[in-house]
Design a protein that fits this description.
280 residues; mainly beta; 10-stranded mixed β-sheet; 4-stranded mixed β-sheet; 20 strands; 2% helix; globular
Length: 280
């Protein structure tokens, strides 16, 4: 859990949740889940899938091209990292899908694939962009990006094909995942996708200014002041535990929404589909 009384140091400001927020930039997400025979155990073998360094995980200073605009928002796309950025023109603030600060972890999307006690964690940057298997197509309102994420560059044991549509409409930013036939290759039929993270580093920054905050629906709702927050992760299960999977003990998010304020600009995010099986 995020500690509220320690300095932030060099940890990243991660995405969190807002309860009934009306802010300047609206982010709408469509999330999905794939169910199957999954073993929930502490004895999980995690398979390393490599690391491409900072080159593809860091938002470049130059390279983003404007692809669309709507209302007060502009959408930008970088061909090298296959990442997007959204500008709030009323404040001049740009929200990046991967941080501008050098790092080796951030990605536009991340997928966890599990079969029995073996787990693969793939991300768009290490397992697709670095392997040159990501493709994109400009659309009338934004861009469609297809990430073919492979567990290795040559003869991968696991391969996931994920198409994400990023676009602007009616002054809002949308990110939609096409959920059909995601897992295209696996060691056997028992392997399933257990988790899909869409834009997990959207708006991530290394430092926080006075007045920056996150809004989260923890109970009746709360504000975390980022300039006084500590490090750590904060996770909530939307609408509570899922009896169908056997998972329990999660903190509950009362709604599939969250928000953030940074450098005088704000956004609110709403999960428009798949919220019942989502984590925030």
């Amino acid at each position: 859990m995020t500690k509220r009384n320690e300095p932030m140091n060099n940890t990243y400001i991660r995405r969190a949740i807002a309860l009934f927020v009306m802010l300047s930039a609206m982010l709408s997400l469509c999330s999905c889940s794939v169910r199957g025979n999954v073993t929930y155990s502490d004895d999980i073998k995690k398979v390393s899938t490599g690391n491409s360094g900072t080159e593809y995980h860091t938002a470049p200073a130059d390279g983003y091209e404007q692809y669309s605009s709507s209302g007060l928002l502009k959408l930008f796309f970088d061909k090298k990292t296959c990442s997007i950025a959204v500008q709030d023109t009323s404040k001049g603030k740009i929200w990046y899908s991967i941080p501008q600060d050098e790092n080796t972890k951030a990605g536009v999307v991340q997928v966890t694939v599990r079969g029995g006690n073996t787990e693969y964690v793939l991300n768009s940057q290490d397992n697709s962009v670095a392997y040159k298997t990501a493709t994109y197509k400009k659309t009338s309102k934004g861009v469609d990006v297809t990430y073919v994420m492979c567990s290795s560059k040559n003869d991968p044991a696991v391969k996931v094909r994920l198409k994400v549509s990023f676009y602007l409409s009616d002054g809002s930013f949308y990110a939609n995942v096409k959920c059909a036939s995601l897992l295209t290759k696996a060691p056997d039929k028992d392997y399933v996708i257990t988790k899909l993270s869409l834009l997990p580093y959207f708006g991530a920054e290394k430092t926080a200014a006075s007045g920056d905050f996150l809004m989260i629906p923890d109970g009746c709702g709360a504000i975390i002041h980022l300039d006084a927050a500590g490090s750590g992760n904060y996770s909530l299960k939307t609408y509570g535990d899922d009896a169908g999977t056997g998972e329990s003990g999660y903190k509950t998010a009362l709604t599939g929404a969250f928000g953030c304020r940074s450098s005088g600009s704000e956004f609110a995010a709403v999960i428009t589909d798949g919220d019942a099986v989502s984590d925030i």
